[in-house]
Amino acid sequence: MTNPAAVSGREVILPLPPPHLTVREIAILRLMAAGRPNTEIASALQVSQETLRKQVPRVLAGLCAEGRAHAAALGVVHGLVRPQDLELTQLPAPPALSQREAAVLRRIVSGASSQQIAQEMYFSAKTIHADVTRILEHLQARDRAHAAALAVLLDLVQLQDVDGRLPRGALGRMSLR
Question: Of 8, 32, 39, 59, which is least packed with CB atoms within 10 Å of its CB?
Fold first, then answer.
């Protein structure tokens, strides 16, 4: 059985089951994808930071995500995070990224840390940190999670980049609507 999800105005057929998240967990995911720090998320949801610290791992586990950025990207793919959740009145034009910035962005979306990216790409962690800073500036993103969600919405990454554990093409086909 396949599940449709909307991404950038296109229909995506996913052979993966939709994540099972509670309403509160989806709210946490949306605020994380918008680049909000834990203090703002806890305040917006009227919960303690301790409660939030316990719920964030459940959000990640519910999505089988490697981290906040990966969760944000998966949230967009599954239709749980929408453009309005990112506080966008309209989607910006995709920025021009260098080849290395695009490669770093693909790895961010897949959930890799800066240290992992540096090891994979044979650059120093300082170089990767500078690349991440430029990517955030290009996308006008607040943090890596916000950048990952924007990257999926702006089609800067392939859907396969969202989950590298799947073989190419496993996330489905896209058809214009």
Answer: 39
Long-range contacts of 60-64 (CB under 8 A, 24+ apart): 62/19, 62/20, 62/21, 62/25, 63/19, 63/21, 63/29, 64/19, 64/163
User: Distance between CA 69 and CA 146 in Å, rounded?
Assistant: 7
Tell me the domains of the chain and their CATH numbers.
3-86 (1.10.10.10), 99-166 (1.10.10.10)
- Residue of 153, 10, 7, 6 lying closest to 88 (CA atoms): 153
d(CA 8, CA 38): 27
Q: Phi and psi of 24, rounded to 5°?
A: -65, -40
Identity of the residue numbered 162: V
